[in-house]
Specification:
By secondary structure, this protein is mainly alpha-helical. It has helices at residues 2-23, 35-42, 71-74, 84-93, 111-114, 117-127. It has a single domain (2-127), classed as Cytochrome c-like domain (Cytochrome Bc1 Complex, Chain D, domain 2, Orthogonal Bundle), CATH 1.10.760. Helix 2 crosses helix 6 and helix 4 packs across helix 6. The termini are far apart. The structure holds heme C.
C-alpha cells in the first residue's frame, strides 16, 4: 500500500511537471487568441478567480493594479528582450516574477491554474488591442 502511494505521488509529480512546463511556455506556444472573447473574459469571474476588471481599469485610473489604457504600446517596453505577448503571458501566469514599478505584488496568483491556455491567449489578444 505504501509503495502504491509513493508510486501515485511519483506519477502526479511527473504529470504536474508536464503541466507547469506547458503553462510556462513562451507566448509563442499559445493557441491563437480572440480579442473579443478576451474582452468578455476581462469582466468575468472565471472558474472562481476574480475578474480582471476588479483590479484593472481601461480609462487610465488606478485601482489595485495599473490601468490598461495604452497598454499595447507600453507592454513591449517593460522587460528588455521580452515581447509584448510574452510579457503579458508572464504577468498573468506569474505576476510576482515582474512587479510593475509603483505597484505592490497584489495580483491574484492562481490564474495559471484557473484559466485555460485558450482563455489566457484570448486575454492577451484583448489587452494588446488597448
Ligand atoms: C487582485 C487584484 C488583481 C486582479 C484580480 C488582477 N490583477 Fe493584474 N495586476 C494587479 C497588480 C497589483 C499589478 C501590478 C503588480 C504586478 O506587476 O504584479 C498587476 C499587473 C498586471 C499586468 C502587468 C501590467 C502592466 O502594466 O505592465 C497584467 C498584464 C495584468 N495584471 C493582467 C491581468 C489580467 C489579464 C487579469 C485577469 C485575468 C488580472 N490582471 C487580474 C492586480 C490584479
Amino acid at each position: 500500500m505504501r509503495q502504491l502511494i509513493s508510486f501515485a505521488c511519483l506519477i502526479l509529480t511527473i504529470i504536474c511537471a508536464a503541466c507547469s512546463g506547458s503553462t510556462n511556455a513562451s507566448g509563442d506556444a499559445l493557441p491563437v487568441g480572440d480579442a473579443s472573447r478576451g474582452a468578455a473574459l476581462f469582466t468575468q469571474s472565471i472558474n472562481g478567480a476574480p475578474a480582471c476588471n476588479s483590479c484593472h481599469t481601461l480609462d487610465g485610473s488606478t485601482l489595485v493594479g495599473p490601468s490598461f489604457k495604452g497598454y499595447a504600446a507600453l507592454a513591449p517596453t517593460y522587460v528588455e528582450g521580452m515581447s509584448a505577448v510574452d510579457y503579458t503571458h508572464n504577468s498573468i501566469t506569474k505576476p510576482a516574477s515582474y512587479v510593475v514599478s509603483g505597484f505592490a505584488n497584489l495580483m491574484y496568483g492562481q490564474y495559471a491554474q484557473k484559466l485555460t491556455s485558450q482563455q489566457i491567449a484570448d486575454l492577451i489578444a484583448y489587452l494588446l488591442t488597448l
